[in-house]
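Case study.
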Amino acid sequence: MTGYRLDSTINMGSLIDRRKSLSFTFNGTRYKGYEGDSLASALLAEGVMVAGRSFKYHRPRGVFAADSQETNVIVQLETGAITEPNLKATQIELYEGLVARSVNCWPSARFDLGALIGLIKAFMPAGFYYKTFMWPSWHLFESTIRRAAGLGLSPIQPDPDRYMVQHATCDLLVVGAGPAGLMAADQASALGMRVILADDKKQSGGSLLWNGQEVGGEKGQVWAKNKAQTIKKNLLSQILNRTTVVGYYDHNFLLAIEYLPNATGHSPRQKLWKIRAGHVILATGSFERPLVYAGNDLPGTMLNSAIIHYVNAYGVAPGECAVIFTTNNTGYETARVLTAMGVTVRAIIDTRAAVTCEKQAWANEQGIIIYPHTVIKTAKGGKAVRSVQIEQIGGGKCLTLECDLVGLSGGWNPAVHLFSQSGGKLEFDDRLATFIPTTSAQDVTSVGSAKGAFDLGTCLLQGRDAGLAAAASRGFVGESTEVPEFEQWDKTDQDMMWTVPETSLSSAFVDFQSDVTAADIGLAAREGFVSVEHLKRYTTLGMGVDQGKSSNINAIGIMGDLTNRTPEKVGTTKFRPPFTPVTMGAMAASRPQGELLRPRKYMPGHNWHISKGAHMLDYGWQRPSHYPIAGETMQQAALREAKNVRNAVGVLESSPLGKFEVMGADAGKFLDHIYVGTMSNLKVGSIRYGLMLNEHGTIIDDGVVAKLSDGHFLLNVSSGHADRIMDWLEEWRQCEWPDLDVVIQNVTHCWGAITLAGPNARAVLTALGCDIPLKNDQFPHMRWRMGTLSGFDVRIFRVSFSGEVSFEINIPSNHTVELLSRIEVEGKAYGLAPYGIEALDMLRIEKGYLLIGTDTDSSTIPQDIGFGRAINKKASDFIGRRSLKRETALSDDRYHLVGLMSDQMMQSGSHILDQNKKSRGFITSACFGAGVLRPIALALLRAGHDRMGEKVTLYTQGTESAATVCQAVHFDPDGEKLND
Amino acid sequence: MTDLSLRALKPWGRVDSIGNDPSQLLIQMETFSAIVRVTALDHCLQNLSERLTSIGFPVPRVNSAVGEEPCVIWLSPRDFLILHKTHPAGDVIEKLNSIIKEDEALIIDQTHGLGILSYAGDRALDLLSQGTSLDFSEVSFGKGESRRTSFAHLKVTIFSFQATSTIGQNMWMMVFDAPYADYLSQWLLHAQKNIT
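After joint prediction, the assembly is written out as follows.
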């Protein structure tokens, strides 16, 4: 095939602007095109015949289609960080400086050493690697095969482009702005509906943009433009061009990708539309079906509709001498278009027996020979088609016709992908030889060729009527719009032919991209893979970038013939989103990169910590990990801070701690159900520690409960679990125990919380001016008091997560910074210093205080951490209690929480090995103890409670070390400091 | 305002607009002197409306927000959020305590736990619809209506304010958790760039 640009006097090309020349680079060579060209049309115009290679056999391939159906020319667009693989050249709008290259070839598409694999093609039928590489072990070959798999390369640098999400709600979404879609949108819009019309092309019009048909006495393209303008005038409606609807989900929720041209700087490159539609009209058009014969993949072989498309829309002749092979009237229209442009049409090979006199007369006039009841048996050529061998069906004389372009039309398949995704049922139509949509599962209507109506008149009428019906169903009534006059073409008179009779099946390609031949389907049938889903997986049919748009129906037909089943019985594979490949960036558009990846929470005292030199990290909230001074490492700073807490006093902002108020006559009863411990008998002013379990008995959170007044409690839950636990509590309250008289409010954000911990904590509070008696006998551990501190109304809780005397001050969040500042000033005399999360971690590990989710996992139950007695003591029921009586829960060989001591630093995640080097547990937390001044750890160890004093071996990252099992509480086991 | 608010909401301390044209987009941090949440127990619900009315508080119907001073937002069948621009939270709570007994409802001062942003301008909906799936059309979200929803991955309450904005257009308010103020302001600046 030698494509070329038609002279502007013959054909301007309806979609290109010949005044605006563009240069681009393909496979390292510079070419020229025009604004409005697709990459594929520009390549054809420049005579590029081999533009891609097939996946398996690396066969040379040229442009085959003109839209999302393209299966051959898959390219890698651009380079570096913005490179994008797996794009169809037919869908890439040409722009100045575009750089693209073919994939799956080396050193070039024209000369690809990978093609040598074709020499052993006979030994590589479908599924060969399933069989061949089983011995001695699949894993021996796996890495090589995985490397060979896939097309194109993912960028390895961060994507510099921006993507955005836009939600939209409409009364009617029309997908496809062809004649049917435009009529539907116009009608519905005129009746007052909020309409969104989405189309993947730059301009509305669909096939009218390129097929040359007239509508309403004017060119189809002009009619479409006017119609689109009418729709746009309605402020409630919008047209989204360059927008591909890629997924159809439940409740008429659809995803679409809008390609935004000329994205620069801060403007996004693609927009992900999340559309919720009252009704959906699918006017998605149809795909032309190729014909299956030996050599049907040679460059120069194209769909007939694609030939018309390139000639009319882009002013490109895809070849100089054509043979048209058809089962229907599209072939004649192709011949008409080509001859009008001066392209030689050597013959029309028509599978149908009868040719109308009208067609014969026209062909005679043009000097075209029509061969009725005839097929192309074989195409010959190397890197392009050179000739075809034709033969009458049923046997007869063979003829060879030289050509450089073969046009194919095996009929039309409605684009039913979105309809099927919506849950709609498909049915095989014998007359059309394809699947058409029938029963809808949602509020959706298919119209036009997407429903199997392949003539313009029916498309226009169906579109209008669907718009009317959709409007009426939602209460919008009024006059119907007029259906314009149209030029009628009949595409329905056709033969059904899945493979050409008597052709060589091993080189008759069904799926061009994956190199699946008719022989492969035969092999699958012989080996029992007759289910359409098995056929797909065994042969990889339809698994390429085009997702079987060209191949699936032919394959179903062939499998049906081989197994004596109708295509209806064979059925289709499941159509899944996305309809066309979508960039990862667009899919993740709702998660901008960097700081906005997920919501960040800041504490009331954030800036105060920054001013003290804090190093902030994300612990669910932005919190100070440590306050380094003079080049300290994190470990050094944390150890200094922890020692200061042990020896003097430290200040920590603990505002993130979850705080819930629970109130009502049944509040105590509710909490008894929720916690392992009993809370209903708490006295006002007292605090109690509790564990929360799920239904499986697994610990999901811990914390303290303070009784504020009768029927009124304050719960503290873990900072990182607060939102989840709030939902959990509400679920139980609303769904399981709605009869309980209790309400809950999350007050976490209302209160700032500041913890003073250490032997001098009480002195600092006194210095601040506190009207609450602070002596231990007046305000002992696990009590709370209300009063004023430094003039602020506060609640002070005497709880500790450090093992030291500790006061947690709750203050309205707006006063947090002021109180922190005053504490800093007054605390100076007592050696006060701030401490961060890393120091807190050291302190709590030393004291054996566990962190749920860190020192426990999804199997840890209360007995494992030494809470067996609390369960036995409690009379009433609580969530998870029954699960604690299961056999596995009572086993002696469970993972128990224990302590470990060692001379060397230990690491979280290290395995604890038994004598046979089998893992018997693992370290959950490890540090250098600031109080005990040696490396310590917490661990989950099988039967750990019975192994105190035992020497164990630790293993991590190839090294072993020794440790001794001990109680989890390393520091102040009797709680003397805590209760001081 | 807490230090957090000063820091995080700094971008919203001034009028922000697109192309120096507030008619396009006007986002402002709204300062309320009182934000009080009332969560009523069952035995308080029966005549709560009458009691609120008796102290001059409007009573919202389901999914709505009524009044300006105060503005009362329906959150759930037992939850209301009361906003006041001039009265401090203490006064509002005192008023509530005059009609609701201590064991009848949880009345919590959320003034410093919540933040409120207002949105107005021709492009306001373009901005809002980047973060939430709510349908802001007049038929679905009329004046005085409110919705609990997810916006930019945060749980928020959005309501269409009774009064018009300073630029004479409809105004939407968004109630969010104050610790997310910095994140939200950054997110909005990011989203604003998408539509400029």
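Observations recorded in class. Chain A touches chain B through 52 residues (CB under 8 Å). Chain A has a mean pLDDT of 94. We will return to this complex in the next lecture.
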